[in-house]
Amino acid sequence: MISLGLGTLVGGNGSSFGGFSAEYQAILTAGSGFTRPSSAEQTIQNKLIEDLKTAGIWAKLDAFYMFANNISTDSTGAFARINWKTPTANYGTAQGSGLPPISAKNGFTGNGTAGINLNYPHFSGTNFANPNGSIGVYYGTVQASTAAISTGAGGSRIRSGSSSSVTSSVITLTATANSFVHINRTSAAITAYLNGSSTGTSASLQPWATTDTSNFFIFWNGTSYGSSQIRVAFIGGNLAAESATFNTLIQNYITSVNAL
Fold first, then answer.
1. What is the pTM of this model?
2. Domain boundaries, the chain
3. 62-241 is classed CATH 2.40.50
4. Could you read off the pLDDT of 125-146 as tens digits, one per residue?
5. In terms of DSSP bridges, do strands 133-139 and 179-185 run parallel, antiparallel, or are they unpaired?
6. pLDDT in tens, 206-227
7. How many other CB atoms are there within 10 angstroms of residue 56's CB atom?
8. Mind giving me the DSSP string for 198-217?
């Protein structure tokens, strides 16, 4: 449900309209110098935020990046690299040979030489903390055994078709195309979720890698670059109970954007 507001904003197509949440207005303000989504897509993005708030997910996120939008005129994905949770900080910048390519509705696709530095240091948030933590991505296409999201020192990571971990506790999952992958750690276990359903749990918890204060990256794991397609990325707290709902909301968003 879209909340009622008094502000008036200028959409990507030049039309004026209002009624967005304060959170989404802040995102649009941060992207005022970029090509922004159309008014129809802005309504879809605002609804996603409202739904995440209603589900109790938004409050547990420290960083949230929506790479998949319908902007086809910006080859750098400038608007897509805004951290929705803190639009004035943690802006994604080029890593390696430059920015990976982005395509409308699909997000960024790794090319094996470029990544995105989220400029978000490990353990810098309020929810991703001892003992809980979550990281996740929505895959478009999947290239086996390559980095999706990772700290530069590898303390927390997701790799497609290979070991994935929050800190040094490792669990294996097999990611598939068009899927939402969520790795969740609590004081008791680390659990992998694929499209909202648990794929396995490891109770072999290692100490937190508190000395790893390197930034989180998309595609870069400190030694090599991945080549999967990433449409969404997030960092947050314990979201085990919300994983199925989180998946549904992200899948609904992707479907809505692809229908534009």
1. 0.91
2. 62-241
3. no
4. 889 987 889 999 999 999 988 8
5. antiparallel
6. 666 677 889 999 999 989 999 9
7. 12
8. EEEEE--PPPP-TT--PEEE
